[in-house]
Here is the input.
Amino acid sequence: MKPSTLWFPLLMLAAAAILSSPALAHAKAAATAAAVPAVAPVGAAIKKVTKTPDEWKKLLAPEAFHVLREEGTEIAFTGAYWNEHRKGTYVCAGCGLPLFDSDAKFESGTGWPSFWRPAFKNYVTETHDTSFGMERVAVSCARCGGHLGHVFDDGPKPTGLRYCINSAALVFQPAK
Here is the structure.
């Protein structure tokens, strides 16, 4: 191979590395965040939804039941929405409450859909989670109590948060 023909593949590899870097993902999220307020608005008052485990089993797909009702976690890079890039709203798979907007979604590189803030601050609840010997903050749907995932403090500006959410806990509603 001529030395000049090696430049193009090397340049393409370098470009791919730069475009997939976490720093670029955080920069893209920060640019989007400039158009979306850092603090989530307060949503309308909600009425709690309660069902028996058998009622939830009839309503939910097995993986959604495992995540939402048994606090399970899907395997990274296997869920429906980790690589979703369309505009829209992510609602609770259990009760349909709007939880996250695509405007607050960013590429975290973790294999789960990640958001830097919820759509409405009162639609997501947070609780201390010490399962598996770790200190974490679990995130749940405020209406049905379904487990969504966890929130970490390693996200992009303006909040610095990363809501790491299971795709199985969500239903994506594309913007019209």
